[in-house]
Amino acid sequence: MRGESVLYSIFGVAIALTALLILYPAYHALELSFQDLDSFISEPVWIGFDNYVEVLAMPEFWNALGRGMVFSGTTIVLQIVLGIGFATLLDSAIPAKPLARGIAVLPYLLPTIIVALTFQWMLDSTVGVFTQIARVFGYNYIPWGESSGAAMTVVILLSVWIWTPFVTLAFLAGLQAVPGELYEAARVDGASAWQRFWHITLPQLRPVLTVVLLLRAIWMFNKFDIIWLTTRGGPLQGTEHLPILAYRKTFELYEVGQGAAVSAISFLILSAFILVYFYFFPLDEKE
Amino acid sequence: MLKAKDTDSKTLSTIAAGARGRKSSRRTVIKGIGAAAGAAAIGLHAPYVHAATKVIRFLNGEPSAESVRAMRFAAAQYEKESGIKVQMDTIPAGKAYEKVQASIKSGRPYDIATLIFVGDVLILADEGKLVPINDIIKKYEWGPRILFPMKGNNYWYPYDYNLCWINCRQDLYDAKGLKAPQDWAGLMSNLDALQGSGEGQLPHGIVHPIGSNGATNYTAFGYMWANGVKLFDDNWNVVLDSPEIAAKAGEYLDFMNEMTKFMPPAPVQAGWANLVGDFQTDKISHTPGTGRLIDTMNVRMPERAANVGSFLFPSKGGGTFAVNHGYDGWVVLDTAMTDEALKFLEWFSDEHLINFLHTSPVHYQPTRLDIYEDARWQAHPALEQFKHITAMQKQVLSDKNIIIRSIDTEGPEPDVRAGKVFRSYALPEMLQNKIVNGMSNADCIKTAADKIRATIAG
């Protein structure tokens, strides 16, 4: 009985915090999306779905959505592939394994602002390290900020560099739970390394993969900091995705209602994705 | 307060005695805790007493150590004289508007705040969050294009012009016998003379950021203003792509495109750091900027600072010049402390503004004309040392051939629409379309004009 009351108390605190820090802000954002507002202190005017109609009619919204898909899709695939590869490598009999595992996690420990600023200077067209290396090979500089494709490639590579260690760690933990007997039996049966990976490792990692894919999808679709700090959505909106569009509308263009509408639509898209994802990849597969 | 402390100590003794061996019942412990809680409640009167002190909450948007120090000194002085505390929070000026909004929404608005966009001031004034400061403004004579009155009222106290001009290496100019350029051809000629690997030459001539950022908005369009380009007519119609203005804007685009051969590669990637760093490290001979560059160099590399010259953005044909407007100012919010905030602002304006301006003497160009004649302001040694630059600053205020403009102050009157255009980056994108994408002038200008129309319609 006493244990139950403690449990309910903890649960109550969690519910209260969720309501205060997540549900109320989400409700407020939704409320703002139905209002015409120049600023957060303006007198709100209820305009129904007008903001949604305007936002959905804007080419920049659809372009931003497309870029968000490209950014999140590419980063997730690369992170998963590299993460599984590194995890497998770090799980094998390599020398100085603890040290290698520690080094593999390092990028994840760095604050995003540090990574963004450091890479900006490394890519600087005058004094950047990469620029100096490019000059050795006869190139004047790397025009990473001059085309949308190049800028998008840079933010994708940076994102992969920073967040692949998280995926690596998750898969490494998953690999510890794979029974060694399975591999021994496969070896006895004459399975090659690739066959062992494909028929044992990957299926065994499926529960981890399901969770990691979901988490990375949510995080990368909403990822704001690395793009904002590196390109601010440029050049010519070439890296502007929905979170940056929402920020610019809300905080730079005096269109708080439209910014909130962009956020709400983004939230709906992500929610729909999660529902579909759970339908096809249910976490609880006991049945 | 003393009683509370006594009660506290007795209670603690009781609990401690209990803990030292005498058998303590649950009742004793509960009583002890109850007494301690009561004592603590009595003790809570202490901060209440302190809260009775009047406090003016001031959001400072000038984060340099010198400026903060000057502000804090003034605040301490004011508290000493009036008994009213000035509590100062400091953030980068670009974030001040968001912070002001948050303070209003949280129910604890700042009493005075720094703002750097007319559009922000206008929105706050329209919402009734600001009080007019007409009486303070009337006390002084002001320079041109700085007060931005709104519906007959002055809602902000501008403290510096923050003008952008072009700084150059005067020592290299002197060595080559060059003069400040009077037109675009003259500037090109000077850039050409100083670019190279020979004696008295540097790798590049100038840097102009062209990316979608504040550095571009602030430093890249001086030539365009000098060439007579306007964004709006008197009725807020976009005239950038009108035949007369488009021709001038096209000339500007061609000029900027041609000037890239004197710039370090990838001006899209350039920002504030390049404007300062490339100049200080001998990579460029010219850089657009303010007096902040000179003040900073004067502290860290005074012998180099002495070699900095300055000139205004020239026009294509000469005869007219421009500076890009920056401006910073303070507003007084409508709060319970408004009257006290107004008194403080007036006191600061009379007693300490000059000290504050002296924290970056060349950069903080006074907006009040009386300050230029004030012996206290003139007494700063840097103003004597860089009198050629301060003379140029003064000339800007009186010479009819010098245009003071900026994207966010375009239009027939102060309006949030100009602020939206500033933050839409329509004009930096016009430059990118020309220089990076190689679009025709007509297409660049049309694209920019359409974006401006869409932006101000929203």
Instruction: State the domain count of chain A.
Output: 1
CATH homologous superfamily placement of chain A:
MetI-like
Radius of gyration of chain A (Å):
23 Å
Q: Give the name of the CATH superfamily of the largest domain in chain B.
A: Periplasmic binding protein-like II
The CATH architecture name of the largest domain in chain B reads 3-Layer(aba) Sandwich
Tell me the fraction of residues in β-strands of chain A, as a range.
under 5%
Helix content of chain B: 40-55%
Strand order of the biggest β-sheet of chain A: 1-2
Give the CATH architecture of chain A.
Orthogonal Bundle
CATH topology of the largest domain in chain B: D-Maltodextrin-Binding Protein, domain 2
Total beta-strand segments of chain B: 12
List the helices and strands and how they pair.
The complex is a heterodimer of chains A (287) and B (458).
Chain A (H helix, E strand, L loop, with lengths): L1 H32 L1 E2 L8 E2 L3 H7 L2 H33 L5 H13 L2 H11 L6 H8 L11 H29 L3 H9 L4 H29 L3 H6 L11 H11 L3 H25 L7
Antiparallel strand pairs in A: 1-2
Helix pairs in contact in A: 1-12, 2-12, 3-7, 3-9, 4-7, 7-9, 11-12
Chain B lengths: L1 H18 L6 H18 L1 H7 L3 E6 L4 H18 L2 E6 L5 H10 L6 E4 L2 H9 L7 H5 L17 E5 L4 E5 H7 L7 H11 L9 E3 L7 H6 L2 H5 L16 H17 L12 H9 L3 E6 L1 H10 L1 H4 L2 E4 L1 E2 L6 E4 L3 E5 L5 H14 L1 H5 L11 H5 L1 H4 L2 H5 L1 H12 L3 E4 L10 H9 L1 H10 L5 H17 L1
Parallel strand pairs in B: 1-2, 1-3, 6-7, 10-12
Antiparallel strand pairs in B: 3-11, 4-11, 5-7, 5-8, 9-10
Helix pairs in contact in B: 1-2, 6-22, 12-23, 22-24, 23-24
Task: Name the descriptors.
heterodimer; A: 287 residues; mainly alpha; MetI-like fold; two-stranded antiparallel sheet; 2 strands; 74% helix; 1% strand; B: 458 residues; alpha/beta; D-Maltodextrin-Binding Protein, domain 2; 3 domains; 5-stranded mixed sheet; 24 helices; 51% helix; disordered N terminus
Q: What is this entry, summarized?
A:
By secondary structure, chain A is mainly alpha-helical. Helix content of chain A is 74%, strand content 1%.
